[in-house]
Design a protein that fits this description.
With about 375 residues, the protein is of the alpha/beta class. It is built from 15 helices and 13 strands. It has a seven-stranded parallel β-sheet, with helices on both faces. It has a six-stranded parallel β-sheet with strand order 10-9-8-11-12-13, with helices on both faces. It is globular.
């Protein structure tokens, strides 16, 4: 295998996009010819090294007024034109619609397609249209990378048998960070403000924490997804006159400096793939409490009571209780933090890259033998 193409919507600041940019850059530095085929360009994107070739395969200006079905077929057509022009040894698709497009674009060509499932399949891969496309297209896949075993178990054995479970790599900047001697009395959280992250539950839980510990604050870092979550949070803060101790900090490029200033890290999602924010917090040695949300991401890295706390999804009382326990038991919090740091052993960039490299090489070798 000498060349690899990654296909996804864009390279905006998100989980799948970060993984692709990291992998693309690393494969390029290792001597592979790497292409990244995207549907569009976003304002705030991860950077690619000059050795990576970025190709636009999305709709063109003259396509914008065309119908929905026509647009879908054009997206497939443009991706197919890309594969014919650059002829990569393997095509790796990231995320829901990109998986379908890649399989359709590759068609009956000799290019093996590896899928990547990045979200809870329940709710994203179980609609009627999905069931049709999965039955028609997924048997053509040469393989699939899942983030958790729970994701993998959703699909048929034919896809499971050719798959790997590989968690997300953690940016090296989050390892080995130094914590300040005098920490802020603060609970930390960083993630995009979006409905499924359920940050309103975190705010409500912290209001109860603050009743018992009025000297503590909550800081929520992360960009606005524009889905109304930020407005809900702002309303909660105003309604409870909490402006002095609950803060929406916005996006931050130096989280490795900000997050360790706090004492506790809390994560409140209703569902996830593999939450990068949680992995980063653990890498920074933060004592964490997280919902045990589908499809099993937090459970894959947190051993409840050993390196963090897991709570049921939507359990506001449990979230309040675990935050209080970590605030009030400094020894427990310190022990959790030190155990959490050990995630570097399984989620460091080198470890994850070599898992991907070994898997893609094996898929390519199997495909060329047929």
């Amino acid at each position: 295998m000498k060349s690899i193409a990654f296909h996804l919507n864009c390279l905006c600041q998100g989980g799948a996009e970060r993984v692709v940019s990291n992998l693309a850059n690393r494969f390029a530095k290792e001597g592979y010819k790497v292409y990244v085929a995207t549907e569009w360009t976003d304002e705030n994107e991860f950077e690619l090294v000059p050795e990576v070739t970025r190709v636009h395969v999305g709709l063109r200006p003259e396509d914008e007024k065309k119908g929905r079905v026509t647009k879908f077929l054009l997206r497939v057509k443009y991706l197919k034109e890309f594969t014919r022009k650059y002829n990569p040894d393997i095509l790796v698709a990231f995320a829901h619609r990109a998986n379908y497009r890649a399989l359709m674009a590759a068609g009956n060509s000799d290019i093996p397609v590896v899928l990547s499932v990045r979200i809870n399949p329940i709710g994203y891969y179980d609609a009627f249209s999905d069931k049709i496309q999965i039955k028609w297209l997924f048997p053509k896949a040469a393989g699939c990378v899942f983030q958790t075993k729970e994701q993998r178990d959703f699909f048929k054995p034919y896809l499971q048998d050719n798959s790997r479970v590989i968690i997300n790599p953690i940016n090296p900047k989050y390892f080995g960070v130094t914590h300040p001697e005098n920490k802020e009395k603060c609970v930390m959280h960083h993630a995009r403000l979006v409905d499924f992250k359920n940050q309103p539950m975190l705010v409500r839980a912290f209001l109860k924490v603050h009743e018992k510990h009025p000297d503590y604050q909550l800081k929520i870092f992360g960009p606005d997804s524009q889905d109304g979550t930020k407005e809900i949070l702002e309303q909660l803060i105003v309604e409870n006159s909490a402006q002095d101790y609950i803060h929406l900090m916005g996006p931050c490029s130096e989280l490795e400096k900000e997050i360790p200033k706090g004492e506790v890290y809390a994560y409140s999602s209703d569902y996830e793939g593999m939450p990068n924010s949680l992995l980063e917090a653990m890498a920074m040695g933060m004592p964490v409490v997280s919902t045990d949300c589908p499809c099993g991401g937090p459970r894959a890295v947190i051993r409840d009571g050993e390196n963090g706390f897991l709570i049921p999804v939507g359990d506001e009382e449990a979230l309040t209780d675990r935050i209080l326990r970590l605030i009030e038991d400094k020894e427990l919090a310190s022990r959790f933090g030190e155990e959490a740091r050990k995630i570097e052993q399984v989620a460091g960039e080198d470890a994850i890259f070599y898992q991907w490299k070994e898997y893609l090489e094996s898929v390519y070798d199997n495909a060329t033998k047929k």
